[in-house]
Each structure stands twice: as structure tokens, then as C-alpha cells.
Design brief:
InterPro entries: MetI-like, MetI-like_sf, UgpAE/MalFG_permease. Belongs to the binding-protein-dependent transport system permease family. Keywords: Cell membrane, Membrane, Transmembrane, Transmembrane helix, Transport. The protein has 58 residues and is mostly helical. It has a domain at 29-58. It has three helices and no strands. It has helices at 14-26, 30-38, 43-57. 0% of the residues are buried.
Length: 58
């Protein structure tokens, strides 16, 4: 009989945190990212001013 063991170490939770982070990233509208890039914002400014605030609300 096999059992599932959940680790409480930081390395054990890394996969769970990654899945939650990726799910939050999918919630950021592509149109908004595209509009920022058209307006001249680079990848870093788009991440700081659009992606992070949208993820924080998720």
C-alpha cells in the first residue's frame, strides 16, 4: 500500500507554488500585455507594472 507524503520543507512545496504561480500568470489578459508593449514598455516594465499587480490580486 502506497501513501502520499506531503513535505513541509521549502523544496517540497516548490512544485505547488510553481503551479499556483503559473495559474496566476494565465489570468493576466494578453491584450493588456500587448497594449503595454505597443505603448513602448519593455518586458521588465510590463512585468513590474502589469503582471505583478495582477498576480497580487489573484
Amino acid at each position: 500500500m502506497s501513501s502520499i507524503r506531503l513535505s513541509s520543507s521549502p523544496c517540497g512545496r516548490c512544485g505547488t507554488i510553481l503551479i499556483i504561480y503559473l495559474a496566476a500568470l494565465q489570468g493576466v489578459p494578453h491584450e493588456m500585455r500587448e497594449a503595454m508593449m505597443i505603448d513602448g514598455a519593455g518586458k521588465w516594465k510590463t512585468f513590474i507594472h502589469l503582471t505583478l499587480p495582477m498576480i497580487a490580486r489573484a
